[in-house]
Amino acid sequence: MRTLYDHASNEAPPEPDFTFPREYTGVYLDRRRETGFQLYNALGIARGDKAAYAQQALENFRFFGAPHVAIITTNEALGIYGAIDCGCYVSNFLLAAHASGIATVPQAALSTYAKIVRRELNLGEDRRMVCAISFGYADEGHPANSYRTSRAPLEEAVKWIAD
Ligand SMILES: Cc1cc2nc3c(=O)[nH]c(=O)nc-3n(C[C@H](O)[C@H](O)[C@H](O)COP(=O)(O)O)c2cc1C
Hints:
The protein is about 40% helix and about 15% strand. It is α+β, with helices and mostly antiparallel strands and about 160 residues long. The chain is globular. Flavin mononucleotide binds next to strand 2. Its cofactor is FMN.
């Protein structure tokens, strides 16, 4: 964890295995902003306080204080479909953990330094890091756990086609 945290603190250039989104537009941008501002409001971070944003982003690299982290990787030969499979795995991990009373934080941020993760954990050169999941018992009193993100209505997420 220390190595990753130091790297992120020094603003080392990102080297993810899978390219991060090029940009967020439309509803994706709207939803991202809503979630972000909910978090900043809960933490008392003022709009535009870039230093506080950066400090909060660094929390990723100490797993938000969670005692455990799962690193989700796929085989390089599987390409993007390996990453899709991992997405299914991540969903089920989150639901199974929640059902067992364990809280989770899925994190793409830790893939920023995939090479370092591979090196530090002695992962094979054929592994490609998709994301990580920090987990443990929730700190219910923490302000970051004081709100819930909203959910898009079904009509917004599904296009119904009738003949
Ligand atoms: C695949 C995936 C990657 C994510 N990566 C990060 C991340 O790197 N850092 C972060 O703070 N939140 C990340 N999030 C968002 C949060 O973990 C969390 O999902 C968000 O606060 C919304 O909560 P909800 O899933 O209950 O709507 C990610 C979510 C997903 C599904």
